[in-house]
């Protein structure tokens, strides 16, 4: 079992088809055998995917146990964590083995992280996301029910009653990122369960592919060897979550394989035609059942129903209640037909490049405003006197915030130095990841399902495109009343102002914004000059943001912005000697499609474009450098981007 088995006392094993023998402690065994956890054995991990993939019968219980095991295997490789945990927990909490308590806490938190999932997992979550009026709260998340269940469940309290660190309150606080009062060795581990490539994602990517007959060509030992963890020394930990997950540059192929497996899971399994249709029929029956209950029950009873929905109901309970209680036989038949595999037919599939570039961006707005999907479907069915189910399929892009760290020396992990470690953005080193990113934006589509053949398909498509434009206009008008602007629109308005500047000030056809980081800084500076808020850009600072990089890739892929790649040299100063570095720079410019899109925005947004243009003219000297000046060290290359001196004190990289 390695080092950690000397601290944790394993009493039994669970045989798992993915990770083989999974050792468990007595505490974990008691939780797994409790009624509250047994419920997860009757909730399918992939909803109705088994209709198309017969092996996809695995459950939330298996995934939760697998996540616990992955957390154990990887976290146990953080050797500095033992020293850190033992010193603080022993001194401040009178715990003899701080490392044992820390690892036991992490394992139980991972084991319980999905405790509040509704029946049929994510398919039913989407019902509440698309129908917010059916949720008796503000913003729906199954995580809220997980945390409440952990805090209030009597059976769980009894199992954990003698635990100082692994208390229900501490576990619930950890899962909700309410970690300020938690012991620091535990608080800093939060990113391990909630990051771009955490234990949860590693398990479900490999597990879901495996059960669908498409096993990933990757093993846990390769994943373990690819991790690097940056952790502050025990006497320097004053903030929280002072841990950063990074990956070794020479293990890039492992991350690429994992992200390719994720792409395979989405495109081949989750977006498979029958799987999509079955889940839409399930969601349709569920939302109609909940509407009937909301109308017939008072507010308190309906809230209690939704509570039971997440705390005690299984897949079987949902099917039984919908079949028994619904007054709409047609909607109940949707569910029964879906379970038997007697599905509707896909009559229309509109892919991204079947529509105009500006319509592609209209389409993507539905990925954020999911409740608009139901309005869209209702309007189309009313206009065409039909009973279609309309599905908006968005392919989630790969995580770009993952950082890669090179191994310059064998001892780099144990040497302390000032500043942050050398690190590269994932997509800057991987053409495969860049390809996955672009494909994720180009492979989304709209699908229409029906029980009968339709003769006039071309008219239906035209009505869909018209409604797409109408809904987008309504969304923007609502945001304008709240003095808000969409992030995509702000970027395009800035580029439109630059395009106008290039024509009127420089008398050239186009001016390129040089570099994604420079453009991000430019927009960050201009954002404060307008009266509108842009919640999409709350993450923007003068530090590089992978989210902004992903946004620009989306606009380029959808055909609204042109991108050119330039290989440029920059002069740097290091150790008082001049040196040259070379990097690939991406420059951006609004094209004619983007200009057409901007010109058709509401008048209030066009006024923002004009105001941005005026600001550029007023502060021409200040803004000019963002548009025309070549790269140099102080503008683009921070000290942390270069290999640091390894003989200074500071933050160590802990090589796991």
Provide a count of the helices.
29
| CATH class categorisation of one domain | Mainly Alpha
- Spatial shape: globular
- Specify the structural class: alpha+beta
The residue ranges in which pLDDT falls below 50 over 5 or more consecutive positions are 1-6, 232-241, 409-420, 571-582, 629-656
Q: Into which percentage range does the β-strand content fall?
A: 5-15%
Mean pLDDT: 81
C-alpha end-to-end distance: 16 Å
Give structural notes:
- The chain is α+β, with helices and mostly antiparallel strands and 656 residues long.
- It has a domain at 483-618: Arc Repressor Mutant, subunit A (Orthogonal Bundle), CATH 1.10.10.
- Helices cover 51% and strands 13% of the residues.
- The strands form four sheets. The chain has a six-stranded mixed sheet with strand order 8-14-3-4-7-9. It has a three-stranded antiparallel sheet with strand order 5-10-6. Strands 11-13-12 form a three-stranded antiparallel sheet.
- The chain is globular.
- Mean pLDDT is 81; it is low at 1-6, 232-241, 409-420, 571-582 and 629-656.
Any chance you could write out the topology, listing elements then pairs?
Blueprint: E1 10-16, E2 20-25, H1 26-32, H2 35-38, H3 60-75, H4 79-93, H5 98-111, H6 122-130, H7 142-152, H8 154-159, H9 168-175, H10 184-187, H11 199-211, H12 220-226, E3 227-231, E4 243-248, H13 252-270, H14 273-296, H15 299-311, H16 315-325, H17 329-340, E5 345-351, H18 357-365, H19 372-384, E6 389-393, E7 403-405, E8 416-417, E9 424-425, H20 426-429, H21 431-442, E10 445-450, H22 457-481, H23 487-504, E11 513-514, H24 516-527, H25 546-557, E12 561-574, E13 577-590, H26 592-599, H27 603-618, H28 620-628, H29 633-636, E14 651-655
Parallel strand pairs: 4-7
Antiparallel strand pairs: 1-2, 3-4, 3-14, 5-10, 6-10, 7-9, 8-14, 11-13, 12-13
């Amino acid at each position: 079992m390695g080092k950690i088995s000397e601290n944790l006392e394993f009493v039994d094993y669970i045989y798992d088809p993915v990770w083989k023998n999974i050792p468990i402690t007595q505490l974990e065994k008691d939780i797994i055998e409790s009624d509250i956890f047994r419920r997860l054995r009757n909730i399918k991990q992939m909803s109705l995917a088994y209709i198309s993939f017969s092996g996809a019968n695995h459950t939330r219980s298996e995934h939760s146990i697998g996540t616990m095991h992955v957390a154990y295997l990887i976290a146990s490789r953080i050797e500095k964590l033992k020293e850190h945990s033992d010193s603080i927990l022993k001194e401040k909490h009178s715990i003899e083995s701080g490392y044992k308590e820390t690892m036991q806490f992490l394992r139980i938190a991972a084991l319980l992280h999905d405790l509040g999932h509704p029946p049929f997992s994510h398919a039913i979550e989407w019902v509440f996301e698309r129908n917010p009026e059916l949720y008796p709260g503000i913003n729906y998340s199954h995580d809220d029910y997980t945390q409440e269940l952990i805090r209030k469940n009597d059976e769980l309290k009894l199992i954990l009653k003698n635990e100082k660190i692994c208390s229900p309150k501490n576990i619930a606080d950890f899962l909700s990122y309410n970690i300020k009062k938690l012991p620091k060795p535990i608080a800093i581990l939060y990113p391990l369960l909630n990051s771009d490539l955490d234990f949860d994602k590693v398990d479900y990517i490999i597990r879901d592919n495996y059960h669908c007959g498409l096993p990933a060509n990757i093993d846990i030992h390769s994943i373990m060897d690819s991790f690097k963890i940056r952790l502050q020394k025990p006497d320097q930990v004053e903030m929280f979550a002072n841990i950063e997950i990074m990956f070794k540059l020479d293990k890039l192929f492992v991350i690429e394989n994992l992200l390719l497996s994720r792409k395979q899971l989405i495109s081949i399994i989750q977006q498979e035609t029958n799987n999509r249709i079955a889940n839409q029929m399930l969601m349709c029956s569920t939302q109609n059942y909940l509407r009937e209950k909301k109308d017939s029950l008072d507010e308190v009873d309906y809230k209690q129903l939704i509570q039971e929905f997440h705390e005690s109901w299984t897949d079987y309970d949902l099917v039984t209640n919908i079949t028994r209680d619904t007054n709409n036989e047609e909607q109940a038949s949707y569910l029964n037909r879906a379970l038997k595999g007697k599905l509707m037919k896909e009559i229309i599939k509109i892919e991204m490049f079947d529509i105009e570039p500006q319509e592609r961006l209209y389409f993507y707005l539905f990925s954020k405003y999911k409740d608009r999907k139901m309005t869209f479907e209702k309007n189309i069915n009313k206009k065409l006197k039909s009973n279609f189910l309309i599905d908006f399929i968005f392919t989630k892009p790969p995580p770009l915030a993952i950082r890669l760290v090179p191994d310059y020396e064998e001892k780099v992990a144990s040497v302390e130095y000032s500043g942050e470690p050398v690190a590269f953005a994932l997509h800057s080193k991987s053409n495969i990841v860049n390809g996955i990113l672009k494909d994720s934006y180009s492979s989304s589509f709209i699908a229409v399902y029906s029980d009968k053949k339709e003769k006039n398909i071309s008219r239906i498509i035209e009505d869909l495109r018209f409604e797409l434009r109408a809904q987008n206009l309504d969304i923007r008008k609502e945001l304008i009343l709240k003095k808000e602007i969409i992030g995509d629109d702000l970027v395009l308005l800035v580029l439109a102002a630059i395009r106008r500047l290039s024509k009127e000030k420089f008398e050239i056809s186009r001016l390129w914004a040089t570099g994604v980081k420079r453009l991000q800084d430019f927009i960050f500076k201009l954002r404060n000059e307008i009266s509108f808020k842009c919640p999409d850009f709350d993450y923007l600072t003068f530090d590089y943001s992978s989210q902004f990089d992903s946004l620009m890739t989306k606009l380029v892929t959808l055909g609204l912005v042109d991108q050119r790649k330039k290989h440029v040299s920059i002069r740097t100063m290091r150790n008082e000697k001049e040196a040259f570095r070379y990097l690939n720079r991406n420059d951006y410019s609004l094209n004619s499609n983007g200009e057409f899109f901007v010109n058709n925005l509401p008048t209030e947004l066009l006024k923002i474009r004009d105001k941005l243009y005026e600001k550029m003219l007023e502060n021409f000297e200040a803004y000019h450098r963002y548009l025309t000046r070549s790269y140099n060290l102080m503008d683009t290359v921070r000290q942390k981007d270069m290999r640091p001196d390894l003989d200074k004190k500071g933050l160590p990289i802990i090589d796991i």
